C-alpha cells in the first residue's frame, strides 16, 4: 500500500493545496502548438518536419499518420505544420473530405479547393497559372447530373441558363485532355521552386467508397510534382475499405501508395493517468487537510484508473465534470462526484438507473421495505452491466460498491448515516438528488453553515446559527450529529440546553410511514444527546446531564425520554450505566425531572407534550404515585379536558402493499393505569353538556375506548 501511495504522490494523484476559483472547459479540438503537447510527441513531429524539409526530390511523396480514432492524429499534424509557418518554400493546403457537398463531387471539389487555395498563396504568374489549370482539371470530374451530353444539346431548343454555363466550362476543359493538363501543371510546379504540402485528415471517418476514391486520387490522379501528401487514418479501417476492390489485398495496395507510414507513438495508460490527474488538479483546488485522498485512492485503483482510452475520452469527461465542479467542491463529496461523472459520460443507461432508484441507493436498509429489495436491484444492475458500452464490468461494479456501500455490505446501523452524511456522500438521501441536479436547494444546509456551527461558543451563537425555517432546523440537527463527538464539555452543555429548549418548536410534517420516527425532531435531538454522552468516556457526563435536567427550558418529554433510556441501560447492566453514571446520580436526575413535571401539572396552564409517554416513564421509574398525581393535577383545569383526552388517543400506522393506513384509538387501559376510567368519563360529561362537533368527536372516542387486548386483535 505504501508503494502505491508513493506512486500516486509522484504522479500528482494527491490533489494540490489552496482553494481557487478556476473553472476550465476543454475543447475536443486538436492542439495547434507544440507547447500544448501533453504526450511528448512534439519531438517526433519536429523530427518529421526536418525530414520533410530535407526531401528535395520532385516526385510526389505520401506520408501516412496512422493511429486509432481519438489518438491525436490531427494534433500531431498540427505540430508538424507549425514548423512550416512563415516558410515561403512551402504552400500548405488542407483538404477536408467532410466538407464536400456530395460524394460524387469528391475529386472535383478536391481540385477546386486546391485551385482556390493555391491562388490565395501569392500573386505571381506561375501560382496563378497553376490555380487556373487545377480549376480546369476539376471540371473533368464534375458530375453531369441532369445536363445532357454535348452531342445532344443541339437538339434542345430551350437551353436553361445553368446548362449554358456548364457548356461553356465543359468546352473550355475539352480544349485540353487530362494528360495534357497534368503535364502542364507538373511543368509549372517544377518551375515554382516550392513544395506543396497537402493535408487530408480524418480519412477513416469516410464511407468505404470515399476512402477508396481518396487513395485513388493520391495514387494516380493528383500525384503532381513537388507535392507532399500527409494523410491521417486508422490502418484497420482503411485496409478493410480497400480490400473490397483489391481482392483482399488492401494492405499491400496501401503500402504502394504511402511511402512513409508513421504509426503514432503509443499513448500508455501511465501517460493518460498523468494527464487525467493533472486535469483534476486544475479543476479541484482543495487543501490536503480537507480532501479525502484515502477514498480517492480507493476509487482510483478500483476502476477509475485506466478508464480512459485516449485524450478525447479525458476531454469529454472533464467538460462534463467541470459543469458541476463548483457545487461539488462546496457542497458534495468530490470523490463520489468523480465516479458518478465517469458513469454519466460513458454509461448513461446506468446513470439513469441510479438516478431513478433513490430509495435503494441512498439511506439505510429500512428503504428496502419501501421499494425494491437488494436481490431485485442487484439483478437489474447485472442486466445493465451486461450491456455496458465502454467501461469494463468488473471495474464498474467495484466503483458502484465504493460509492454505494450498500451494494456490498449487509449490516447497517445509525452510525453509517452519520459517517456518510458528514462526508456528504451520494449514499445519503439528503445529498443524493443534488448529484444529479447540479444545484443545491436554498433550503438545504451548506458547508459554510456547518463550519460556522463548529466555531460556536455561546447560546447567542446558536440562536443566530439556527435562525432558519423549521425544515432547515431539522436537517441541521441531523447533520451536526457527526460534528459533536469531540466538542468540549462546556460547549456540549450549551448545545444540549439549546436544542432541548427548541425541540417543542420543531414540527415534522413530511411523509408518513412505519419508519418516519427516525426523521422526527425528538429522535434527532436525542441522537445528539447520546452521541455526546455515550461516545466520549473522558467527559464529566453526569455534570452535563445534571446541567441539562436543571435547565428550566429543557423539554420535559425529552428529559423523561432520556431518563427511560438511562434507567433501562442501568437495569440491564445492573452496575454502572453505560452512560457513565452511578445509581445515586440516576436517582438525582429522576428527582429533578419528577419535581419539574409536578410543578408544571400544578400550574395546569397547558398539557405537557407527549404526556402519556411521560406518565408511563414515571411508572417504569418506580414513580407510579407521582404519575397519578400529575394526572389528577391536569384534571383541575376544565378548559384543558379536551386536550387532555387527546393525549390518550394514539395513531397507529401500518403499511400494506406499499400503502399507508392510519387508525386512531383511545385505549381504556391507558387511563385506568393512572385514574378510574368511569370517573374520568363522568367528569367529562359534567363539563361538556353541549359539546361542539370537534369536542363531541373526542368525547366519543373516550366513551368508545378499547382495551389493550382488543387493540392487539385489530
Topology:
Layout: H1 2-11, H2 42-53, E1 61-66, H3 73-82, E2 90-95, H4 106-120, H5 125-140, H6 150-153, H7 161-174, H8 178-192, E3 195-200, H9 208-221, E4 227-233, H10 235-243, H11 250-257, E5 260-263, H12 269-283, H13 293-304, H14 311-323, H15 325-331, H16 334-346, H17 348-355, H18 358-361, H19 374-386, H20 393-403, H21 414-422, H22 429-432, H23 434-437, H24 447-454, H25 459-465, H26 470-480, H27 489-502, H28 521-535, H29 541-550, H30 556-573, H31 583-603, H32 611-620, H33 624-634, H34 641-646, E6 649-656, E7 659-666, H35 668-672, H36 677-687, H37 693-703, H38 708-713
Task: Name some characteristics of this structure.
two-stranded antiparallel sheet; alpha/beta; single chain; 57% helix; 714 residues; disordered N terminus
Description:
- The chain is α/β, with parallel strands linked by helices.
- Helix content is 57%, strand content 6%.
- The protein has 38 helices and seven strands.
- Strands 2-3-4-1-5 form a five-stranded parallel β-sheet, sandwiched between helices. Strands 6-7 form a two-stranded antiparallel ribbon.
- Strand 3, helix 9 (208-221) and strand 4 form a beta-alpha-beta unit.
- Helix 27 (489-502) packs antiparallel against helix 28 and helix 27 runs parallel beside helix 29.
- The protein is elongated, with a radius of gyration of 41 Å.
- The two termini are 59 Å apart.
**Taking Cα atoms only, what radius of gyration do you get, to the nearest Å?**
41 Å
**pLDDT < 50 stretches:** 1-23, 144-171, 365-370, 510-518
Mean pLDDT equals: 78
Q: Care to count the β-strands?
A: 7
Output the number of helix runs: 38
The main sheet comes to: 5 strands, parallel
Helix-residue proportion: 55-70%
Strand content: 5-15%
Strand order of the largest sheet: 2-3-4-1-5
Overall 3D shape: elongated
Structural class: alpha/beta
Distance between the termini: 59 Å
